[in-house]
Amino acid sequence: MHPQPHNAPAAAANPASLSPGLRSGLRAADGSQHWAPAFELKFLLAEPDAQRLETALAPRLAPDPHADPALVGCYRITTLYLDTPALDVLHKIGRHRYRKFRVRCYGVAAAAESAHLERKTARNGQVRKRRITIGAEALPLLSPEPAPPSAPPTWGPEPEWFRRQVAARALRPACLVTYLRRAYDCPHGSGVRLTFDRQVLAAAADGWSLSAEPRSPVRLVDGDEPLVVCELKHVGPLPAAFKQTLADLGLVPAGVSKYRRAMRSLGLAPAPGPATEPRDA
Questions:
Q1: Which domains does the chain have, with CATH numbers?
Q2: According to the model, what pLDDT value does residue 235 have?
Q3: Each residue of 33-64: pLDDT tens digit?
Q4: Model pTM?
Q5: What does the alpha-carbon distance between residue 260 and residue 250 come to, in Å, rounded to a whole number?
Q6: Residues 4, 14 contacting (CB under 8 angstroms)
Q7: What distance in Å separates the CA atoms of residue 185 and residue 111, rounded to the nearest whole number?
Q8: Could you give the CA distance from residue 72 to residue 209 in angstroms, rounded to a whole number?
Q9: Reduced to 3 states, what is the DSSP secondary structure of residue 191?
Q10: H-helix or E-strand containing 30?
Q11: Helix, coil or strand: residue 187
């Protein structure tokens, strides 16, 4: 059995399992709700450091309810990244500097019944996402051509908005990335989410399809050491206890982009220059 999509009914009943960038507000101790910005810290860790961080923080957190027992508490994510023919997203040019558009599914992509269309805006560590869910059979309708009159009933204003955004930005499928994620959420709605991503694999995109099986390992740094992408996401200020744990372990945030590293590992983009890898997802 594979984990449900994150905005399936079970997830809606448990909003703590949503990425903080998708949440509309932060619930205070008195039950009131107010808007607060979402932030994201990324770490590129050797396996021993990732295990130490997980051991230190897990007692304060609850496992994501969508974890698949068959995957040892993880679940699979498959993401189709979009870019322009000139790779403006990869190079962070113009209006592509802070925003990226992608298509994501959970579980085995070839068997997925739904797909999530996402726009992610990331700037100065602050993140905001907009997500739309469609049936997986409707993915070909995202092609920047006029939507055919045979569009399924699930097609409506929101997916059409996404399709228009794709067309206006001259975006097209660039590459497919998959990985295993172990995730934890802070109970009581405090807005903290901790994720560990391993076994990152990539493949060149095959049109608007998620069914290809990525097999090429993504080199997250120069070298063959297997590394873990850790993300600490939070709404509002990061609690002091989490800050102290990061300091005690000597962990420093590092820019890492699965998309950029995947494109370079596949030979679809030039190797980075002396500048630091841009910080985004």
A1: 9-265 (2.40.320.10)
A2: 87
A3: 556 688 999 999 999 999 999 999 988 999 99
A4: 0.84
A5: 26
A6: no
A7: 27
A8: 27
A9: coil
A10: none
A11: coil
The candidate with the shortest Cα–Cα distance to 100, out of 21, 42, 41, is 21
* pLDDT for the residue 151: 64
Angle between helices 47-57 and 240-249 (to 10 degrees): 150
| CB contact at 8 A, 154 and 135 | yes
User: Which amino acid is residue 209, in one-letter code?
Assistant: S
Q: Which two tokens stand for residue 49?
A: 């450091």
At 133 the pLDDT is 92
Single-letter residue type at 154: T
Q: Give me 193's structure tokens.
A: 């989410």
The 3-class secondary structure across 226-275, one letter per residue, is: CEEEEEEEEECCCCHHHHHHHHHHCCCCCCCCHHHHHHHHCCCCCCCCCC
Class of residue 217 by CB neighbours under 10 A (exposed 0-12, middle 13-18, buried 19+): middle
Residue by residue, what is the 3-state secondary structure of 101-163?
EEEEEECCHHHCCEEEEEEEEEECCEEEEEEEEEEHHHHHHHCCCCCCCCCCCCCCHHHHHHH
Phi, psi of 244 (to 5 degrees): -65, -40
Sorted by sequence, the CB contacts under 8 Å of residue 22 that are 6+ apart come out as 129, 131
Element of type H or E holding 178: strand 172-185
Please count the residues of the chain: 281
What Å distances lie between residue 224 and 44, 218, 258, 262, 279, CA to CA? 14, 10, 16, 14, 22
With cut-offs at 50, 70 and 90, classify the pLDDT of residue 253. Answer: very high
